[in-house]
Task: inverse folding
């Protein structure tokens, strides 16, 4: 249907409704939470509540070693999709990594989050050349690096960061833990379609290579 | 989706006699209710957020045309295409045309109530597409060829054994799985292939953001994300009432939605999509379409049921409805079960055809008490009954009884005399037993319960005999 | 509450249809309690029905006619009080019935503002000290209309806590509908039966020997099902226990135990 005609129908419906003729104003919203010094603690608490594991690393340069240790502990093969900004880190020889979109058999992805949300323990992934979306959903194991300074108190903090950047990514994926389903007998099962495990590497140092 | 066969009575009788459904309903009731209560208790601002969310919706609805226009302009500036569907038929045609143009073979679907509402799967299958529901619950009921019985847990009525049977039949060459983990894993592997073959991915839109031209979906499984990321074409189907002004407004609703729906503080995945793949993007869909569906919503906007347009489809109303808890979703006969369905289904599909839905309710108010956007559901259900009465739909026998009683109730002397007579007859019949186990004309009561007998003469007679307040 | 300061407010006691016919003891209990709370109690003889069945059925014309009648009978009192949450809930909705009639809406609003369910009246408006004994372990069913339309929850418990010998054992799902729902229970008897059976399970699990509540419709539904199922739980309206009028047969019980 023609857009003008469609909207005209809605305008007429509003005009013919006594309750709607006075346009009501948008309300003031409750203030989002603020955690101050407790922000990182809140963030990691919520990560755990959503069945994520996490560890701290001093700098991004320490990432390859910690990723490989995590994989080795679980006897997971050292093959992975790695976000382009992390591909240049000092990965040892014998580790297969690529930065293309995830393929159907992709087992591991290593990503860099755009932001974190302390309120809900979510990681915000900003799609684009530096962050393929498929890395977030296709692999079984998802390791996500996030700089401590990028952890916001609330979603509203992420929106502010986006507005400061001037644009929305094509996809902004907020991730709170591994994929799960309760669709068979309301029994919660991890790894429904997306990752079975999400491991967060919290990078303490400011700045660093990216 | 076409309405289910039978009547509310026949469907609810079947539900009451279905042991596996009853078992499922027993399992799920305390789970959803207790988890919601715990999640709400942890958020001190919850009640204020409910007020705010309702007020945001009211404000948007009062200028819905303006917000939709802003939203559509923004989507198109990002290279997306917005389609406007006046009714279900138009929406189906738009999506068929998108699939045709895309030369699609496989169509993957994330969970979308609007697509159920407009009966999309049936026509796409008729066109020869391989249509795959990817939400595990939706996938199960697609294999079973059944409609959803709950809006967020569509296969809640299926037991593990029934799912195992369905998978065994539909996944040839795979060993039968019995455990929940095994079944979930099997679906993961089978559906993964479908995601990678998908040409068109159809999802719902929980929210549409005018500020950024963004559609938002929330899932726990990640199926919606795989659907919309791996398909060449992404189609969002959404009701017109889902638009919100800004991302900050969205946050208000996201804080309410998961807590109300499943008792989680947030779903695993909240995804904001804005337009198609951009230059340099390594993945994502090449085309991005939004189909805005009216299908009677603008009519609701001007009537007595406008508050229903605040609905965010969380399912809290049915989770807390004791009638839903007794008969499950299929008894309601269509896409939307429970209290929300008792209002929406008559509005979409006819007051007469769905006479029972608003009547099969005790007006206990529990749905209204938990609705995150404060829809006065109980009030609206009663209002729906009033609309039915005004349309002359009350059954003649009930209408006659109501008229007779109404007349007598305005003749106090006669009313008193009839109460006196009734009391005497019931006492005579009961003797000293205190109750009646059967009573002609009251079989619907005495079939399941005794009728306590009157204690003695009526209160007013005794009061007067004792000389009133002394 | 300007009236409550007056020495002896005049209370019009609304004798609900069910109470009037089936359970006069509740009416006398209510009158006792209101008198103990310092009220003068009157029972208008011309009262019939508040119109709830018509209102719930969506028959607004019939409901309006009954509302007018009840407004006329009770508007002269300082308070309208009734031992039923659902009937008072209906009176509180009267103003909505007169959306297009300013004169009647004003009268409806005035009455709605002084219409109270008995148990909440005895706590929120008038203070009362309970002097009653009841030997037993009771569980309390929160009837939906009282609970969700009027906020009756803590008041009956506060009053019952003063009854000597009475132990309260809360049940699970005390706030879940018992399946009565007025005409619902006869229009959809099988669903209603399932709902009341769920209620019976909660009652049994509480270990109580007595069920209390504040709305006779729900109590007759539960008592009738309890009796049919052979359970030995006694059912009383809360007012009967508070007034100490529990010598005779409980609801649906054989006389002369």
Result:
């Amino acid at each position: 249907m023609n857009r003008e005609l469609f909207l005209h129908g809605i305008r007429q419906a509003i005009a013919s409704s006594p309750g709607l003729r006075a346009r009501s104003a948008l309300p003031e919203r409750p203030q989002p939470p603020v955690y101050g010094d407790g922000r990182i603690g809140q963030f990691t608490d919520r990560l755990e509540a959503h069945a994520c594991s996490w560890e701290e690393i001093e700098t991004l340069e320490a990432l390859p070693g910690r990723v490989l240790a995590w994989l080795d502990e679980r006897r997971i093969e050292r093959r992975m999709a790695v976000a382009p900004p992390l591909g240049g880190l000092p990965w040892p020889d014998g580790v297969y990594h690529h930065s293309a979109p995830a393929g159907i058999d992709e087992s591991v992805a290593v990503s860099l989050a755009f932001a974190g949300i302390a309120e809900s323990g979510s990681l915000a992934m900003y799609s684009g050349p530096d962050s393929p979306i498929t890395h977030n959903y296709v692999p079984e194991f998802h390791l996500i690096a996030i700089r401590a300074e990028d952890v916001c108190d609330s979603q509203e903090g992420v929106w502010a960061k986006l507005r400061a950047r001037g644009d929305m990514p094509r996809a902004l994926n907020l991730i709170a833990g591994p994929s799960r389903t309760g669709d068979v007998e309301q029994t919660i099962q991890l790894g429904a379609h997306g990752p079975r495990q999400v491991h967060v590497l919290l990078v303490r140092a400011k700045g660093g290579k990216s | 989706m076409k309405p289910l066969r039978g009547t509310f009575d026949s469907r609810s009788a079947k539900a009451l006699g279905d042991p596996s459904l009853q078992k499922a309903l027993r399992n799920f009731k305390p789970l959803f209710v207790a988890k919601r209560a715990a999640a709400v208790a942890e958020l001190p601002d919850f009640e204020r957020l409910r007020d705010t969310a309702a007020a945001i919706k009211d404000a948007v609805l009062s200028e819905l045309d303006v917000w939709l226009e802003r939203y559509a302009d923004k989507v198109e500036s990002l290279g997306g295409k917005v389609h406007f569907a006046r009714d279900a038929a138009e929406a189906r045609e738009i999506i068929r045309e998108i699939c045709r143009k895309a030369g699609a073979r496989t169509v993957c679907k994330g969970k979308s109530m609007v697509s159920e509402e407009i009966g999309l799967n049936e026509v796409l299958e008729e066109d020869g597409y391989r249509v795959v529901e990817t939400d595990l619950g939706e996938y199960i009921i697609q294999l079973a060829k059944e409609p959803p019985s709950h809006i967020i847990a569509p296969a809640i009525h299926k037991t593990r054994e029934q799912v195992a049977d369905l998978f065994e039949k539909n996944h040839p060459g795979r060993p039968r799985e019995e455990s929940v983990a095994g079944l979930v894993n099997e679906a993961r592997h089978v559906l993964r292939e479908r995601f990678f073959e998908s040409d068109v991915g159809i999802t719902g839109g929980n929210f549409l953001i005018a500020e950024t031209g963004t559609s938002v979906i929330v899932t726990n499984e990640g199926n919606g994300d795989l659907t919309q990321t791996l398909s060449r074409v992404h189609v969002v189907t959404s009701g017109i009432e889902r638009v919100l002004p800004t991302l900050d407004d969205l946050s208000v609703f996201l804080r309410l939605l998961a807590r109300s729906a499943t008792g989680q503080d947030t779903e695993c995945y909240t995804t904001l999509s804005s337009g198609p793949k951009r230059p340099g993007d390594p993945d994502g869909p090449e085309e991005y379409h939004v189909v805005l569906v009216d299908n009677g919503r603008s009519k609701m906007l001007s009537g007595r049921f406008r508050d229903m347009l605040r609905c965010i489809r969380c399912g809290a109303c049915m989770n807390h409805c004791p009638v839903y808890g007794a008969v499950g979703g299929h008894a309601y006969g269509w896409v939307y079960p429970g209290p929300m369905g008792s209002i929406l289904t008559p509005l979409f599909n006819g007051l007469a055809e769905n006479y029972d839905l608003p009547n099969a309710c005790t007006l206990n108010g529990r749905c209204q008490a938990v609705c995150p956007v404060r829809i006065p559901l109980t009030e609206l259900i009663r209002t729906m009954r009033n609309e039915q009465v005004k349309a002359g739909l009350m059954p003649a026998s009930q209408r006659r009884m109501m008229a007779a009683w109404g007349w007598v109730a305005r003749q106090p002397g006669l009313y008193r005399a009839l109460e006196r007579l009734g009391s005497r007859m019931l006492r005579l019949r009961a003797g000293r037993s205190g109750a009646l186990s059967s009573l002609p004309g009251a079989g619907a009561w005495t079939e399941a319960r005794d009728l306590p007998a009157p204690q003695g003469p009526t209160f007013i007679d005794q009061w007067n005999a004792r000389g009133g307040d002394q | 509450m300007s009236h409550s300061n007056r020495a002896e407010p005049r209370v019009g006691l609304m004798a609900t249809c069910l109470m009037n016919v089936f359970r006069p003891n509740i009416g006398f209990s209510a009158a006792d309690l209101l008198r103990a709370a310092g009220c003068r109690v009157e029972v208008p003889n011309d009262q019939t029905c508040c119109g709830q069945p018509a209102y719930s059925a969506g028959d607004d014309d019939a409901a309006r006619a009954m509302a007018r009648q009840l407004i006329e009978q009770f508007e002269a009192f300082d308070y309208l009080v009734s031992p039923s949450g659902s009937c008072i809930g209906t009176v509180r909705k009267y103003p909505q019935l007169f959306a297009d009639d300013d004169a009647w809406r004003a009268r409806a609003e005035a009455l709605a503002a002084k219409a109270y369910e008995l148990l909440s009246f005895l706590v929120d408006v008038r203070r009362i000290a309970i002097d009653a004994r009841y030997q037993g372990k009771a569980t309390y069913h929160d009837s939906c209309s009282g609970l969700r339309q009027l906020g009756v929850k803590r008041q009956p418990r506060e009053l019952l806590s003063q009854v000597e010998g009475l132990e309260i054992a809360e049940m699970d799902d005390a706030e879940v509908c018992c399946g009565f729902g007025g005409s619902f229970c006869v229009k959809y008897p099988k669903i209603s039966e399932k709902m009341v059976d769920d209620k019976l399970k909660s009652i049994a699990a509480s270990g109580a020997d007595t069920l209390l509540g504040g709305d006779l419709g729900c109590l007759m539904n539960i008592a009738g099902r309890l009796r049919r199922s052979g359970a030995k739980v006694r059912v009383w309206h809360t007012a009967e226990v508070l007034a100490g009028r529990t010598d005779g047969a409980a609801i649906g019980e054989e006389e002369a135990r």
Notes: Confidence is low (pLDDT under 50) at residues 1-5 of chain C. Residues 189-206 of chain C form the longest helix (18 residues). Chain C touches chain B through 77 residues (CB under 8 Å). The first strand of chain C starts at residue 10 and ends at 13.
